[in-house]
Amino acid sequence: MFGNSDESIDSLGRQSWFQNSSELFKSWMTSVSTVILDPFYTVIRVSISAVFIFIGARLLIASGWRSVTYSTILKILAIGLIPTLFVMVPYLGTLIASIWTLVLVVVGIEQVLGASRGVAIVVALFPKLLVFFLAAGALFLLLGGFLTLLFS
Known about the structure:
The protein is mainly α. The protein contains six helices and no strands. The chain has one domain (5-151). The chain has helices at residues 5-12, 14-60, 70-80, 93-113, 117-124, 126-151. It starts with a helix and ends with a helix.
């Protein structure tokens, strides 16, 4: 009984109980930390998107460039994020929320900044278009460098 302490712990089942409770605690903390940190992540993501949409609006909206302010863009994005509540709907919730958010942001840019619908769509998609074109440019540079090394 006193010779091997591992056997006495195992015979009582305490070691497996501690391992199970440790795994449950880790999974619970992961879930709780996600819920606690998600609002901060959303604020940061929206703020960064607003910067790029602001740059796109200043570049593309010629008639009302004085009315284009960062706070105006941030307000449009904040109102546009209301449909993200539909993410809770299984299967189609994310698709519905994404489309409706895009529509609200486009309509907000049209109404508040006085842009045409086409310009408002490009301004609303400006961060995504910027990332796409930067990634495509980097891919072409890498491909060009690889082909140069291959055929030289």
